[in-house]
Amino acid sequence: MTLRTIFATTVLLFGSLTFNAHAQEPEPASAARNRAPVTFLQINDVYTVEPTDGLGGLARVATEKKQLAAAGHSPFLVIAGDFLSPSVASSVFKGEQMIAELNATGLDVATIGNHEFDFGDDVLIRRMREARFTWVVSNVVDAKTGEPIGNAVPYLVKTFGTLKVGFIGLCLNTLEVSGDKLTHTRIIDPIVAAKKYVPVLKQQGAQVVVAVTHLSYLTDRAMVEALPQIDLVIGGHEHYPITATVNRSLISKAGEDARYVARIDVNRRPNGALETFYELIPTSSAFGDDPDTAAVIDDYNAKLDKALETVAGVTRVPLEGRSQQMRSSETNLGNLVADAIRADAGTDIALTNAGSIRGNRVYPAGPLTRKTLIEMHPFDNVICKLAMSGRALLDVLNNGVAKLPLASGQFPQVSGLTMVVDTHAAVGSRVTEVRINGEALDLTASYTVAVPDFIFKGGDGYDMLAKQQVLVGPLYGDLITTALAQYVTAQGEVSPTAGGRITIR
Prior knowledge:
- By secondary structure, the protein is of the alpha/beta class.
- α3 links the parallel β2 (38-43) and β3 (75-80).
- The longest helix has 18 residues, at 291-308.
- The radius of gyration is 23 Å and the shape is globular.
- Residues 1-16 and 18-24 have low confidence and may be disordered.
């Protein structure tokens, strides 16, 4: 059973969990929960602000917060990174719309995720200054001054009734953030930063310590093992719900796109024991849309629709764009994007990391608008053209499949080649039977390869690409979104298939 399955099952089996250490006497959980002086509402990894498949929508989240306040609770809405990008709207507005919509939703605290850097740190700082909520960022600093990026604070202490709560905010410092996005910004090791600021929170009287993080689950776990003073991790980065206790600490991740909101009521009993009540709540139509938030969303949608509702072409078949399938197997949408990249660059082959293809849904057969094509690939990635040996290409392909059978963003969607992957073989030796346009791979031959600039610069572990001969670099290549639109327009009708390019055993 994978980590994902374990925690997803835990959430389904235990929709409401109570963690009550050293309770002296039993009492109804509802009474204890209602007594909690603070109710955290958690969302993370929000790329779509409206409902999909009946769940999600920031206007519903705003309603949930208002309903809790009306019922006498003290709701405190937190987002754990990844919301300025990627999305169709962000490709146009560079995250401006997300700040306006989260302002309307009533967001209280945010920390930074890797996708906040998609448009560079200068754009991020502009967006931060437009926010009416508080940015808590403990490990992302100005490279010259060492002060937190933008107008963020490195930590926050806030009182709810009789309870004093301290917050830190942590962003990952791994390859998901490429160095070219950090023109004057430095990301410190998150655990090092946590060790610096958690004692400060305790010195300032924090009775509960909350880490708002955009880290991998394994890093969150390592952090609370190193710092048992952290009571609660409100986390992001994984796109599926995770609820776990590590020693005395609760780690919560609420999935993506606000399809669920994690409600976490926290209190300290008179005997000092921490009392935490957890519930993962589906963001369904039962909440209704908050009109003020909906009005802001509608305004940006109208602006976007006007610009993007032109039809580029037609697909005769549904296009498989669900994240789990895209990041673990060949899909027809992955093939379409890779074919468009290869056609634009005129190369022997093309390879793109599956994590760059978005939407997380099956796109139905029918017209493909420019808006839909941007939704499929919402990043400003540029096509780079490289020359490399067959041996180097084999290393690239092996990196792409290194995490199988787990789904991962580095999984390759390809054009111009076929390969067999043995998931039981050692990492680095999994790819065999590679054929380039029907011919067996020659380890000593040179091939032209088109890739996104993100992985050319080392993203998703593809650091070997920067060592190859550059034919067209990031400053001169076409945008992938442009190449995709041109490819679909030139074809008029597309009907990509899947099967035969990547065989997984």
